[in-house]
Amino acid sequence: MSERRIPVVAVLAVALVALLVGGEGGDRHVTFGQVDASALPAADPVGNLTSTWFCAAGSATRGGPANLTVAVANPSTGTRKGSVTWLPTGGGAAVVTPFTVGPRDSTTLQATDALHAPIVSAVVETIGGGTVVEHVLNGTRGSAVAPCASDVSSSWYLANGVTERDATQVLALFNPFPDYAVVDISFDTDLGRDAPGALQGLPIRGRSTVFVNVGASVRRRAVTATAIRARVGRLVVDRVQAFDGTVGRTGLSLTVATTAPAEEWVFPDGLWSDGVTERWHLFNPGTEEALVSLQLVPEGGESPEPVDLTVPARGQLTVEAKDVGGVAAGIAHSSTVTSQNGVPIVAEREIDARSPSARRGWSSSFGATAPARRWAVAVGETSGVTDEWIVVHNPGTRLRRFSIGALANGEVLPIEGLQDLTIPAAGLRRGPHLGLVDHGHSPARLGTVERLVVAAVLVAIAVVAAALLDRRRRPDAPSQPGWAVPAQLDRADFPRPDAPWLVAVFTSVTCDSCRGTIDKARVLDCEEVAVFEAEVGTQAELHRRYAIEAVPITVIADGAGVVHASFVGPVTATDLWAAVAEAREPGSTPEPDLGH
Is-cis flag, bond preceding 552, omega within 30? Predict the structure, then answer.
């Protein structure tokens, strides 16, 4: 490999397919600003009004250690408009960069083009769902890629991380909301549990990011499993891991933490050989011990018997591939970690490549927690020094077929040799090298596989994450759906029923545009107009009663509860205020049809 173009490589490492959507089989209601519970990031359905992603870690300085780039892929058939809000820490105002990404295409935006800041995070919002967002870090230690988070959470977990003398491990704690968050951070190592006093009750200012150097609190540990829990607020957590090459490891790795343990983790690809070490890191943050099994499936031949393991409560366990037996050195394999007693755990799979391996570096990434029919990768590269592979694992009991294409200029371009392929039950198949026509950054990939097939990307230069898209059995919903809005309200369901007018805003705390909508509505609150926010977390019954399936929805009703106007999605202050004025005094505005 050329060290002139890329000084440090991140290794022959699996790029985990980690972004999940929907439930197993069947349709589900489409929501706005909210996704089904998932341990890993989730791509919103195509029919959503908007989609929001949170990219925690990065810098924006000339020659910076981890300069941030955001990549947006749009596998849908409609154009998506959106914006990136760059949020610097340590001075300077937020900067908003608008963008448009065409159907079945992708775009990238660099933080250094928008601002200068030692620490920067990003919030990416698009009008319409179905987009996939990843973030790339480039710096003196190399480059790395990971999905952005699709939601915020009060809990985050990592099963691995290194603070040995050649390693720097940084946690990026991003609070995208205006109010403070307060967090507690604890670590589990081979020496037991550690909760450093300096990391208890750690405040994170609103719309800012705190970088925590783990090595300053937990020194010289080969494995640090991490739990981050918020006392107040919610946040997003990335892990940035770098190695300086002094003991053979080099490179930069980026991982978005998981929001919850799970009972099963699937790793589609794996390999160990002379110089390449493969390990599984199992972390149990709960109060009961977990009885788990580790099943390996080789690329050819019979699968060995599963290995039974016990992960202690509030503890971690490391398992090395060469000690497991059953799969010899140099044999590609998939692996599945399953809880046998229903106690969920957090699992990462590590690859550590040093001399005499031809490729050097380190990566540690999560497994997939569910299979799916469609997956997408927002960032990919093939060049003279970079290879890219697709690895597909079928954990089911039937043969499956799949095809892989590239998203470019409004089309899914079939990749030669990767069309209508088959994979046996519980089998593993590697796609050929993806040598596209031109070198440099290649188009986003869209891999369409049958249900119960898990896909991953194996990249020789940086850990690349993929997005699972749309497991629903129906075709993609239109990008501009019509949402049902109540025509009649029972004023007794809302505060101040005696007020002549009501502005009710149905919201969710996970929806960024909801906050702007309710802020605009509150300006109208007066003796004549009652303004009420119905947030789904605290007013779930009200959402069910009025069949609210999207947020924000703003409803303007009179004293009898008759709805005179409504808005689905974000609304400008001018339009909202004018609609209320027109409802109260018909003919008083030049646009009497606002809200109809």
Answer: yes
